[in-house]
């Protein structure tokens, strides 16, 4: 039964010397779906959906650049020796935390410039970002990257995975943990959870949808990152994403507790929208 299916081609289309890779197609699909969901939610909250589109015009490219810079900074010795590969983003080598940091800074700048609630926008975007992350991990799958350590084929079969996933995890005759799949499913579960909680308006205050996202994603990422073989390291055995996951989880939980303890008032802009809808 081994090797019934060949590894999938990471190139979706070729035109002469130009290649369109599945990695980019999948990332683009995730972004498009996220934007669609975010604009619909913005409309429900009383915002002009075009605000989200205009904001994403800045946030997406800056986020991608941030993801690449983040990755390069922690692999600086390699890229200093191979500067021609710095722009080869189509071969992978972007870090989601870098995209999130750059994206959040951009959103903060844009919302302040437009006089729109930063917390409200993050609440609108949180589940959309999670579904984009869930979809985007399949780009790693097509590139046969972001996988975990060596496992047996029997182990993968016990997970009841389809044959095409099992064989895509066969790299040079060795099978690996499909950590891309673990994170994709974790993000999908978080997306469903946040949609459920967001409908229960009495449970969450403004900003707490975003805190839920941060805690959910960082908690899962900490454990999944520990399984990966391509981690970025701070020093010694300390993995960058694990250290950042701990900080983000504790930070989000701490700010949430502080806001609740001090009966943090509702966001003024959100309150105005609610009154208009009433």
UniProtKB/TrEMBL annotation:
Function: Catalyzes the transfer of the diacylglyceryl group from phosphatidylglycerol to the sulfhydryl group of the N-terminal cysteine of a prolipoprotein, the first step in the formation of mature lipoproteins.
Residues noted as binding a 1,2-diacyl-sn-glycero-3-phospho-(1'-sn-glycerol) in the record, renumbered to the chain: 137
Tagged with keyword Zinc: no
Protein's name according to its UniProt entry: Phosphatidylglycerol--prolipoprotein diacylglyceryl transferase
MF annotations from Gene Ontology: phosphatidylglycerol-prolipoprotein diacylglyceryl transferase activity
Cell compartments where the protein resides: Cell membrane
Membrane topology recorded in Swiss-Prot or TrEMBL: Multi-pass membrane protein
InterPro entries with a match to the protein in the record: Lgt (IPR001640)
Keyword set, alphabetical order: Cell membrane, Glycosyltransferase, Lipoprotein, Membrane, Transferase, Transmembrane, Transmembrane helix
GO CC terms, sorted: plasma membrane
HAMAP family, per database record: Lgt (MF_01147)
Keyword check for Cytoplasm: no
Spans through the membrane: 20-39, 51-74, 86-109, 116-135, 179-197, 204-224, 236-258
E.C. numbers: 2.5.1.145
Secretion signal, residue range per the UniProt entry: none
Chief place where the protein resides: membrane
Family designation: Belongs to the Lgt family.
Pfam families in alphabetical order: LGT
UniProt record, GO biological process: lipoprotein biosynthetic process
């Amino acid at each position: 039964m081994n090797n019934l299916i060949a590894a999938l081609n990471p190139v979706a289309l070729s035109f002469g010397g130009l290649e369109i890779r599945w990695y980019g197609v999948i990332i683009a699909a995730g972004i498009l779906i996220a934007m669609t969901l975010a604009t619909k939610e913005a409309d429900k909250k009383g915002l002009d959906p075009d605000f989200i589109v205009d904001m994403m015009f800045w946030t997406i490219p800056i986020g991608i650049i941030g993801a690449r810079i983040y990755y390069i900074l922690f692999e600086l010795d390699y890229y200093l020796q191979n500067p021609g590969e710095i722009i080869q983003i189509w071969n992978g080598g972007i870090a989601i935390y870098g995209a999130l940091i750059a994206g959040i800074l951009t959103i903060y700048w844009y919302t302040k410039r437009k006089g729109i609630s930063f917390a409200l926008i993050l609440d609108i975007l949180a589940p959309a970002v999670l579904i984009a992350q869930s979809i985007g991990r399949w780009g790693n799958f097509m590139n046969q990257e972001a996988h975990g350590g060596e496992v047996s084929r029997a182990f993968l079969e016990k997970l009841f995975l389809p044959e095409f996933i099992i064989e895509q995890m066969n790299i040079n005759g060795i099978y690996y943990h499909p950590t891309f799949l673990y994170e994709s499913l974790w993000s999908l579960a978080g997306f469903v959870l946040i949609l459920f909680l967001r409908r229960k308006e009495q449970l969450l205050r403004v900003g707490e949808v975003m805190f839920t996202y941060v805690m959910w994603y960082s908690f899962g990422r900490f454990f999944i990152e520990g399984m990966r073989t391509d981690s970025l390291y701070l020093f010694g055995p300390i993995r960058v994403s694990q250290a950042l996951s701990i900080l983000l989880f504790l930070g989000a939980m701490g700010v949430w507790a502080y806001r609740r303890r001090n009966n943090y008032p509702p966001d003024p802009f959100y309150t105005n929208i609610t009154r208009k809808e009433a």
